[in-house]
Write a structure and sequence with these properties.
Layout (H helix, E strand, L loop, with lengths): L7 E6 L13 H8 L5 E11 L2 H9 L8 E7 L2 E8 L6 H18 L6 E4 L5 H12 L3 E5 L1 H10 L4 H10 L2 E4 L2 H11 L5 E4 L19 E4 L10 H13 L6 E4 L4 H11 L5 E5 L3 H9 L3 E3 L9 H8 L4 E4 L14 E4 L4 H13 L1 H13 L8 H16 L5
Parallel strand pairs: 1-2, 1-5, 2-4, 5-6, 6-7, 7-8, 9-10, 9-12, 10-11, 12-13, 13-14
Antiparallel strand pairs: 3-4
């Protein structure tokens, strides 16, 4: 296919800041900003609300089968935002998303120019609507794998696995934030014959700071509202294990929340005197704070990627991350990046002890990785190039 204009890419995402919910993760928006000189991006940002269960039952009793999709549309600078209603707890999950796909396809058909490619920014949610819409408008589609949600829904809905398999293998391109998440999907749905690309999300904090020895202890960073998923309880349990061995290793928690969040976090920490709360830090201050720590630790229960891990490595701070989550698959036998089973406090404790006891050696390994160009895969220039290449391939333009 030869084009004299920029390819038009239509993105369907539930994770894009929009007029309905402004405080969403900026990851997808950042990818679009990086590549706006190569593509005309159009966003359909979606927000799901629940239909009352009795209405779903009433529709079935009346013979209608499914409730008709209700939605509200609002235009905004990046495209259009849709707030739609669907039954709770995954009831009629695929059925309602296909209805959403119909709405999106009809909107596209009314436009003067159809997109050249549709992208669903999760296989198991947006992917259903995008594959359905793409078939109606006769255009190729691509997928972004987001391991946290996609693996969770695949486990929870074995009845939908044939549908997910068709969507996964029918995509012109599949992009995954990390190696582990693509591997997890292929383990359940089979290896793709088509193209797949690993594209980490970009961070603005990609200035390289050389590691400094003599750090001031462990550091973790998260919003306190997410303390359960970020596994503060596992960290506290690991510190108790170390304390029983006579090791009082300090942990600083950066991040804030409301009064209830702070109270819950302090209750979990209990009488551990070596844990301090530093509150929220500005983005500009995060790099220097990471640089001053002995190691960064965040053994999350679920994590699609976790930009803070790559931000830590750019800032010269070794990391402890959860196995089979987050940045798993990017590092092999790396002294400065240790993985742990987040459900095993003894593993977290062992990794902490190793990082503290071998800080100079660990940070020397991290410095060698920095000097050898290791961070390049996470740099914005590389992400822009790889994401552009993947989209061009899906559109049919070939490599760039």
């Amino acid at each position: 296919m030869y084009m004299t204009r920029q390819p038009i890419i239509a993105h369907l995402s539930a994770d894009f800041p929009d007029p309905f919910i402004e405080r969403k993760t900026p990851v997808i928006r950042a990818l679009l900003e990086l590549t706006k000189d190569s593509f005309t991006h159009r966003v359909v940002s979606i927000n799901r609300g629940a239909v009352a269960p009795f209405r779903t039952a009433l529709a079935a009793i009346k013979g209608a089968g499914t409730p008709e999709l209700e939605y509200e549309r609002r235009a905004f600078a990046d495209g259009v935002a849709l707030s739609y209603r669907a039954p709770p707890r995954g009831i009629m999950h695929a059925t309602m998303l296909r209805q959403l796909g119909n709405v999106i396809a009809q909107d596209m058909l009314r436009e003067k120019q159809l997109p050249d490619l549709l992208i669903g920014h999760k296989l198991t949610v947006e992917g259903i609507a995008v594959a359905h819409a793409a078939a109606i408008v006769d255009r190729p589609y691509a997928l972004t794998i987001q391991g946290n949600t996609d693996v969770k829904i695949l486990r929870a809905r074995p009845d939908l696995r044939p549908l997910f398999r068709r969507i996964f293998h029918g995509a012109a391109q599949v992009m995954s934030f990390a190696p582990w998440s693509l591997e997890a999907i292929e383990a359940r749905l089979g290896s793709r014959a088509g193209s797949s690309t690993i594209v980490p999300p970009p961070t603005e904090l990609d200035a390289i700071l050389p590691p400094k020895t003599g750090g001031n202890g462990l550091l973790t960073i998260f919003h306190l509202h997410g303390l359960k998923n970020k596994n503060l309880s596992g960290l506290v349990a690991a510190l108790h294990i170390l304390e029983r061995r006579g090791r009082k290793i300090s942990l600083a928690i950066v991040g804030d929340g409301n009064d209830a969040d702070r109270a819950a976090a302090k209750a979990l920490v209990g009488d551990l005197e070596n844990v301090t709360f530093e509150g929220a830090l500005s983005r500009d201050a995060i790099g220097e704070r990471l640089n001053s720590a002995s190691a960064f630790v965040l053994p999350s229960r679920r994590e699609s990627f976790g930009l803070v891990f790559t931000e830590a490595l750019f800032a010269g701070c070794p990391i402890i991350y959860p196995e089979g989550r987050a940045v798993d698959g990017y590092f092999k036998d790396s002294a400065f990046a240790l993985f742990v089973d987040p459900m095993k406090a003894d593993q977290i404790a062992a990794a902490i002890e190793r990082m503290i006891d071998h800080e100079a050696e660990t940070k020397s390994a991290l410095r060698r990785w920095q000097d050898a160009g290791g961070p390049q895969i996470f740099a914005r220039t590389s992400i822009k190039q790889n994401y552009t290449r993947a989209l061009m391939e899906a559109v049919g333009e070939g490599s760039v």
